[in-house]
Amino acid sequence: MIVRSGTLLKQYKLILFFMLQIRLNAALFFFFLSVSGQNEKAQVITGQVFYEDVPLSSVAIGLKNAKKSTSTNNKGFFTITVKNKDTLVLSHIGFRTKEYVIKNLNTALTIKMYPLLAELDEVDISFKKHSLVHNSQSRKPKEINSVFGNEILRKKGQHIDYVSGSTLNLAAPETVGRPAIVNALQGRVANYRIAPDGNGVILRSNNSINLTNNALWDVNGTLYEGFPPPIDLTTIEDVFVIKGLAGALRYGTLGSGGVIVIKTTTNLAPSKSSRTTKINTNTSYYKNDALPITELTKQQLGILPVEKKQFANYANSLGHDIASLKSLAYQYQKIGYDSLALPIYRKIIALLPTNDQAYRDLAQAYLDNNKPFDSWKTYMSLLEMNEENFPEGIGNLVFHEMERLYVTENFQNKVHTKFTPENKFGNSENASTRIVFEWSDRNKNICIEIVNPHNQVYNQCFGPKYSGCKQAAVAYYLDHTLTGEWQFNCQPHMLSREEQYLKITVFPNWNSLQKIDKQIKVYRFEDMHTQKYQVLRLKN
What secondary structure letter does DSSP report for 273? Predict the structure, then answer.
């Protein structure tokens, strides 16, 4: 066989090329291996842990299958040395343990934690033969120390959620504007959550008119809206949670969103929260300082024109003065001329076509004139106007009135509106009494003082002087578990020579199916009245 030298040279160059290619690939392999090894080096990263947009302190953070650990500071921040794809394990008392896989060493971490929901203890309290029947373990209290006395007695079959102070999350953080007790109850109360605006706690979902109410706080007999002041968690003995209409029965419309009753062994720390509004204290007892005042009688109001033409001229003479028009309507309702009050409320709503209170007043006037369908349509117009954001104060009034109207008029079979009542209506036995206060000028300041049968006092004040609250009506509910005489006093704050009319309507057996024979009282305050007056005494 003959082999040419040129052919051997070509074969040699080809072999040399492949050897160089192998060396180059090997070099590239080891280069990328080296780079990959560098990426696996440990690196310090930072992060922040939140619970519902609030930084969570004292969260224990460790590496899975390693001994390395750290914790968050008082602003929720932490730093830790990790490698890519390491797993962080986060734990905190009262919260679910969370595992978080590191995916990017060059990005600060934002981690959210969620409360550990626990089963609630329930206290079933009923009133039988003048003694408390307690269907729970003996370690639980048999009475609730509330603003209304040393016991809240429930009708048989109703329940109150109970949380022992010993089971609270004592490591719960205190954040700006939110005391630790608010966070400590997370996961201990069903449906408990922070309101979307961050200004309170919600205990239940929206009702049929898309209305949510913040819970009221009763701490050692002192009422607070929004959040309570800071409380030393180690001093809390008992927490009772009253939901739904049961709260309104005791605390009026303020309690419609539920009430959180807390009993501690010591007094509270000074308030630091700008979102805390103190309403009253039950350590203040009634001093019998209200002056007597006489309500307007039919004889006094007999001078009102009732003939159609004279009435129209008189009503027209008031022009656009809303307060005077409402006062006139109150007076006609007092003397039983509901047919003359109705056109006045129609005129008011024509002058104030977007005013919530005007719609509510007109709906009630239609009902007084035996026009339930017109009343319902007016309420529905109000709901449509407030589809996105129904005001809480007037919303409670409207919902409870629509609720009774829907049930007693059997509207579930007559209207196409989907409406779900919260209260069960039955016979008159043990039915609650509803008391509605209405005043003619919401731009003036007025305070209502309520004295319970134990002689304990709490106040509600309305008007621009009090947090800009310009309500024109409020309702209170009395059930039959706290018997005795209740007293209602009123203190107008009139700094000039003017008039203010107050109408009080008492609805006995409110949550019964029977027809209600309501009672109306009307008072006139004038000439710079700033005294406190006794306007209603009621035996329950």
Answer: -
CB count, 10 Å around CB of 443? 10
Determine what percent of the chain is predicted with pLDDT higher than 70: 71
DSSP 346-382: HHHHHH-TT-HHHHHHHHHHHHHTT-HHHHHHHHHHH
| Radius of gyration in angstroms for the set of CA atoms belonging to the chain, rounded to a whole number | 34
Cα(476)–Cα(483) distance, rounded to whole angstroms? 15
For residues 444 and 524, what is the distance between their CA atoms, to the nearest angstrom? 14
What are the structure tokens assigned to 224, written together? Answer: 């607070």
CA distance 217 to 228: 6
Environment class of residue 242 by beta-carbon count within 10 Å: exposed (0-12), middle (13-18) or buried (19+)? buried
Asked whether residue 157 carries a pLDDT value surpassing 50, the answer given is no
Q: Helix or strand or coil: residue 472?
A: coil
H or E element in which residue 12 lies: helix 5-39
**C-alpha span between 190 and 260 (Å, rounded):** 13
Angle between helices 338-351 and 322-334 (to 10 degrees): 160
Note the pLDDT of residue 531: 87
CA distance 222 to 214: 17
Cβ–Cβ < 8 Å for 398, 380: no
Give alpha helix (H) positions in 40-93.
Answer: none
